[in-house]
Write a structure and sequence with these properties.
alpha/beta, 10 helices, 18% strand, disordered C terminus
Length: 336
């Protein structure tokens, strides 16, 4: 499950401590999955899956190093993980991992999966788990201990966001339409995925079903839907602008990460004559294969990957409210 580092201009937990939260995300997910899976396999009656907080985890794993706690599994656990569960274990390069000092913020880290129905198979259990974890990820990407952002309900229904988070590996860091500030001006980018080895810039074309996007010139394309043709601004303009902005940020921070541009449509087709260096066209025909290729990442998280994510976070715009103000307004609304 990929990590949602930044969503729009919402406050993000990763903005607080990018050196800690990626490892904490992986450990939390893996421990909770192992726990609920064990309960399901042993036939325990579970009315509600309990959360094991950081204190309990530290007591349970006392005497083990940080590296072991995150990446070391018993022989039995490793055998269970070979059951094609897709709740993956991702190694993280310890060159950037720091010893964790868990603050009082633990109170906002709870993930408590609830039994909605009794799963009959491991696949059903996994589906229930990752669906509920998606909601937990949205909380991480929109709140901290002291601040919170209002999340547009459309993101909870966003099938592309859900597919990326639930399909891609733990070591992928996703920025979903982040808003950055360049010379005090807010600019919305599209989708950025930082893998251990490269930065993927993705512009999405998803409007009418079966639409065909035909490259007509550098500035304008033609969108063909049935017998109707419509001139549209070339999507490569936005894609190229995003690439240039990221290049500037990376150069200023001394970061060397190759940038690959991707034009994506899951429900249409792209007709582009020839090929374009550094740009990949992924349409309805190629999307399943493209996602399948992205799933299979064997590289651990890299120091340069984290630095690249930090350079973007250093330029983002954030809109949030202090939790006490949020709670006061909620109370006033209820009273009203």
């Amino acid at each position: 499950m990929a990590q949602l580092v930044k969503l729009q201009d919402y406050i993000s937990r990763y903005q607080i401590d990018l050196a800690r939260y990626p490892t904490q995300f992986i450990r939390l997910k893996q421990n909770q999955w192992q726990r609920v899976k064990h309960q399901w396999q042993t036939g325990e009656v579970i009315e509600q899956w309990e959360h094991m907080d950081e204190d309990a985890l530290q007591q349970e794993e006392k005497g083990r190093t940080l590296f072991q706690k995150i990446f070391s599994f018993s022989k039995k656990e490793k055998e269970l993980e070979q059951e094609n569960e897709n709740i993956e274990n991702i190694a993280i390069s310890n060159e950037w991992v720091v010893e964790e000092q868990i603050p009082e913020e633990d109170t906002t880290l709870f993930f408590e999966p609830n039994i909605i129905y009794a799963p009959n198979t491991l696949e059903e259990l996994k589906k229930m788990f990752i669906d509920q974890f998606f909601h937990f990820q949205m909380k991480w990407a929109s709140s901290t201990l002291r601040e919170k952002s209002y999340v547009d309900p459309k993101y909870m229904r966003d099938t592309l966001l859900r597919a990326m988070l639930q399909t891609l590996p733990d070591n992928y860091l996703i920025f979903y339409y982040p808003i950055i500030r360049i010379k005090k001006a807010p600019i919305e980018l599209d989708i950025i995925i930082l893998t251990p080895t490269e930065c993927l810039c993705i512009t999405v074309l998803e409007q009418e079903e079966q639409a065909v996007y035909i490259a007509n010139s550098e500035r304008f394309w033609v969108k063909k839907v049935g017998k109707n043709d419509k001139k549209v601004l070339s999507p490569l303009i936005q894609l190229n602008r995003m690439e240039k902005l990221l290049e500037q940020m990376f150069v200023q921070s001394g970061i060397e990460v190759p940038i690959k541009k991707i034009l994506l449509t899951r429900n249409g087709y792209i007709d582009y004559p020839g090929t374009m260096y550094g740009t990949q066209f992924v349409d309805k025909r190629k999307f399943p294969e493209w996602m399948e290729q992205l799933k299979h990442s064997v590289s651990p998280m890299k120091h340069m990957q984290i630095r690249a994510a930090q350079s973007i976070l250093s330029n983002v715009q954030t809109t949030s409210f202090h939790r006490d103000i949020w709670n006061t307004e909620s109370t006033e609304n209820k009273d009203g």
